[in-house]
Design brief:
- By secondary structure, the chain is an alpha/beta fold.
- The chain is 35% helix and 16% strand.
- The strands form four sheets. A seven-stranded mixed β-sheet has the order 2-10-9-8-5-3-4, covered by helices on one side.
- Helix 4 links the parallel strand 3 and strand 4 (114-120).
- The model has no long low-confidence stretch (mean pLDDT 97).
Length: 360
């Protein structure tokens, strides 16, 4: 069976070069006589894997020395709790709610203190990013929280909010390493890797060192303390070793391409091709305000549920899979992450054109 073009929002497409390299090393990783899946996380071989992964990630994002890089577990959802447990010193935090994941993070934070929504786009089904240039930031807020790219709704913060000096905490799960970023604008940047970097099971947290301390909320479990993991260099317990190994290969793949400026150009070209078609289509339409569109997740609809279902079924027969929109919104969604080749988007647009001629 030939490979399909996988437009899943996550777990998602990985670079073929990375998969082939990992396949070649499956039974014997570089003369060790075993797979990385079988390797002790305390071995010198794995120590090299995780340190090289951190080094390459630091290079890609130009991460300053006053930030720690952690390879953790639990997905973005565990961070919804871990962040307030570690950062809510004054028991107050401000949230910008631009989708279901930010809303879930806010609801979780309410368990630990006063979590205020200072901006939201829920009034128009999260189809835009609200004005964040002059927010009513709480004077005693411990941090400001955003989900930078909204996978379900296809929106993206193209300009970060003015936090008025408060640390910015950003869930970047679905735009991680899709473009250059200034790490110094964040207190914490974190994300699950299963959308744009690696297999499910790894969560990367990039955290400014001054936010790491033993001063956490009473009752915070040991495994939920950032300091425990920084002191142990992400090896407090058995980490998701194979996932970290694949992430490291993706970091190297990106560096070999030319880094984040180059992948950003590729992503912009792919997204422009798809958005241009949708903007001129008489059958299909995008659902996001143009200035807030994501480069990674492109939702679209026909306006008729039965026609959407027909499109999804026929697309799958063409090898264009996982185009169904999130269950909460319906329609279609094409997730065109870093590893999605231009040819995949090109084939999707060609099919869209044909479907429109036959059904428009």
């Amino acid at each position: 069976m030939s490979r399909v073009y996988n437009f899943s929002a996550g777990p998602a497409v990985l670079p073929e070069e990375v998969l082939k390299e990992a396949a070649n090393e499956m039974l014997d990783y570089r003369g060790s006589g075993m797979s990385v899946m079988e390797m002790s996380h305390r071995s010198s071989s794995f120590e090299t894997i995780i340190r090289n992964a951190e080094r390459d990630l630091r290079t890609l994002l130009e991460i300053p020395e006053d930030y720690e890089v952690l390879f953790l577990q639990g997905g973005a959802s565990l961070q919804f709790s871990m962040i307030p447990m570690n950062l809510m010193k004054q028991r107050k935090a401000d949230y910008i709610v631009t989708g279901q994941w930010a809303k879930k993070a806010w609801k979780e934070a309410e368990k630990y203190g006063e979590a205020r929504v200072i901006a939201s786009s829920e009034d128009r089904t999260f189809s835009y990013i609200p004005d964040v240039s002059d927010l009513p930031v709480s004077e005693d807020a411990d941090y400001i929280y955003i989900c930078e790219n909204n996978t379900i709704y296809g929106t993206k913060f193209h300009k970060l909010p003015d936090t008025k000096g408060k640390p910015l905490v950003a869930d970047v799960s679905s735009c991680f390493l899709s473009e250059p970023a200034d790490i110094t604008q964040y207190g914490i940047m974190y994300g699950g890797v299963q959308k744009n970097i690696g297999p499910a099971g790894v969560t990367i947290v990039i955290i400014r060192k001054d936010l790491i301390s033993d001063d956490v909320l009473s009752g915070t479990p040991t495994m939920m303390r950032y300091k425990i993991h920084t002191d142990a260099k992400s090896l407090y317990n058995t980490p998701p070793a194979y996932g970290i190994y694949i992430c490291g290969k993706v970091f190297r793949w990106l560096l070999d391409l030319g880094g984040l400026p180059e992948i950003q150009k590729r992503n912009q070209t792919k997204a422009a091709l798809l958005y241009e078609y949708l903007d001129n289509s008489r059958l299909f339409s995008g659902t996001v305000k143009k200035k807030d569109r994501s480069l990674m997740n492109v939702p679209f609809v026909t306006g008729k549920k039965e026609l959407d279902e027909k499109f999804i079924a026929e697309a799958e027969k063409e090898g264009l899979v996982n185009l169904r929109g999130h269950r909460s919104v319906g329609g279609m969604r094409a997730s065109i992450y870093n590893a999605m080749p231009y040819a995949g988007v090109e084939k999707l647009v060609t099919f869209l054109e044909r479907f429109e001629k036959e059904n428009g």
